Amino acid sequence: MDSLLKNFNEVSDGVFYSRDKKTKIDIKVIKELSAHVGKTKLRRARICAHLDEEDDLQEMFVAVEKGSFIRPHKHLTKCESLSVIEGTAIAIFFHDSGSISDAFYIGRESKDHRFYYRISSPIFHMLIIISELFVFHEATTGPFRREDSVYSPWSPDEKDKIACEKYIESIRSLALERIDQSS
User: Which of 27, 88, 114, 169 measures 20 to 30 Å from 130, CA to CA?
Assistant: First the structure.
């Protein structure tokens, strides 16, 4: 295992939990997490700074490779915030019907990009990764319960790779149109 990631428990493919009540993250840990992304099936990896799924505050450092499908989802009872560490993505928000309600670039590479967002109500959302790698810090309330989040019924299952690739392309085009209209 990578030298710095050994300080974390890998509980599933690419998901690491802190072993210590005092979690410290530096750029070296982020680089090792980023290098680990290519070893995972879903082409993403995360470090959970919290000790377990029961913690009241859930904070994660997430690295996602370009082309990884993050299925549109919403959290029924939780707020969520995202802060960019590196890279660029398109953040897309949807009406329950599946039409786009908002889309914008998120990253630190341009003064026109946002680098943070917070969702305070149940809204379907997803990211499309633009850069080769996108790394962010995410925070939400705990405890984590899988049933507190739902996937959109109008998007493909992550297991159908071809359908996911087609969906990413079609939704990327629609999102870029939305971004152009709001510029």
Answer: 27
